[in-house]
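Support case: user asked for a sample of complex input and structure output to validate their parser. Sending the pair below.
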Amino acid sequence: MLKTKIYLQYLIILLDDTSVAFCHADNPLKEPSLIPLETLRKAILFGMKNNLMIQYVYPDYELPNEYNELIESIDHIKIGRELKIYNQVPNEVQCENFVLRLAISEFISHKNEIEGLLEKVTRLNICFTDIESFKDDQIEEYKQALGVLNDEIVRLHGLKKDPQVNILTDRLVLSEMHNCNAGIGNITIAPNGKLYLCPAFYYDERMGVSNQMNFRTKESNWSIAGLDYALENGFEIPNKHLLTLDKAPLCRECDAFHCNRCIWLNRKLTWDNNTPSHQQCVVSHIERNASRELQQKLKSIGEDFETEITEINYLDPFDVRKEY
Amino acid sequence: MSWEVAKRAVDYILGNREDFSESSVKFDFIGGEPLLEIELIDKICDYLKTEMYRLEHPWFNSYRISLTTNGINYATPKVQNFINKNKNNLSIGITIDGTAQKHNMNRIYKDSGKGSYDDVVKNIPLWLEQFPGETTKVTISHEDLPYVAESVLHLYSLGIHNIPINCVNEDVWKDGDDKIFEQQLMLLADEIISKELYEDFTCSFFDDWIGKPLPESELQNWCGAGKMLAVDAAGYFYPCLRFAQYSLRDKEAWIIGNVYDGIDKNKLRPFLTLDRCTESPKECMDCDVARGCAWCQGENYDAADTHTVFQRATATCKMHKARVRANNYYWNKLFRKLELEGNREEFEKQASKRSEVSC
């Protein structure tokens, strides 16, 4: 059971169909289609009334002035502007905190360049775009690549620099799960004026991916509610409890606290929102174990930690699950 | 199913011992009506046996072939030859649903609409002679509630001693059905006790195990979906055939693989992490009579508000509670009778000989 209560705190507003992808899901939409101004106004009103911190997700083009004025009318974060998203290892770093979206194989093959970024950043958020394709024969390579970054973190620590790397250092300071929490901690409004658990489900709807609820119509409706309705009446997420940690049998026993616990990937790969795939679990546990090695190295040079990340002999908690 | 698909399924199952590591196996042929394809089934079983022998598979010494049939073709020469060939490792269940009236409500010939009871019942003596102690599986829905008691007694009169019987899990129940059901079970209870049928006959509705609360530590899922492999005629794999498209109302089929590509284990993960507390609403977890309350994972999926197996369907709640009340009546009455007769201890000693099969 989480000590921290998770409740709706964030509103993600996709400003355009081609808004940047910032997590595991790529954005497959290629045609720009700006959110109507009135829809944006209602989305902001929705955020204000529900006391949500707004995160605008930008496309890669400049918005009309009237949009910029409206956007500035409320506290917010600009994803794709203040928070930069890179889809390949940048040659030059233009900000100290950014998201790097890569395939795992690209991460492995560019590990030395990524290592070189660490002394230029305060925080690097690495997000893999192809976890579903991860194969068990990549385990050793991925482990080694994380080891390269670990060594650099330790070296920089000696120089009184402590860059954060989400998949390595977050676990050192977490004492419980810290996940994406789509649907329970945050909700998304798309340019079509509808609410979704996260942007990836909007993309699935636009790409006609069936929600598997009707085999005759193959409907691809993934939205939770329309914005107008939600403004008037609030909104309900069906089976919302199945998005929470305590209704995720594998995850609630797990200590890979840094894991995103991406429900879109869960749904895509296992067909159930609360069950992660083998690949997700293995990747998260390789990272968790790399965090443990980092912790051991930092301890050996005099650092203290409140709790120790224990040694485990599995990479997929499914293999050691409770069976009744 | 074509022979090619069947052979591929057998080759896959026998060739992947790591994924099928149980010490014993039951090969279950169901339909539609399996005996319509007895030649194919015969060929499959011959192949299974020869392959298990050739591969020195541990199952060669621990397997069972099982069929559930409507019984119409039971006495035909081809079926009888199959039975004789496989007798030592074979179970056959004939579905006879109770009295002719009850049976013919649902089990009719497609072309004529005529009930099949007469053509089934004539094969019961041969079946019981060849498979003494076999059972039939009786299913109760809204329409046949008034016939529950007489149907069970009728099946007893045919020589079937153990009757696994259950209410359907689907939401077919109307207001007042629980009362009718309870009355029927109490009627049945009175007949069983007054005629002392309890000595030699059982009915799964009456079980002294049910109707108590379940401790929080007892979390196992009721249903075995995901722990078996179901293969359809086209060669698709399912956690249970209730997840095949023809078994579902609206949701898309939950296919977990096929005979060409094998099992996608990710699609099985939700089933293998199911537990009672995750899928049950609070009311079920707090229920004072939870023990014995059954559910079907396929119906859970079919009825769920979202695409999940983690939402338990509760359409049978009132029916279970009615069963519990009638069950309590039965055991209180029976135990008191046995107590007064001085036979209770002996009866309970013999209780393990009374088999009870429940879904």
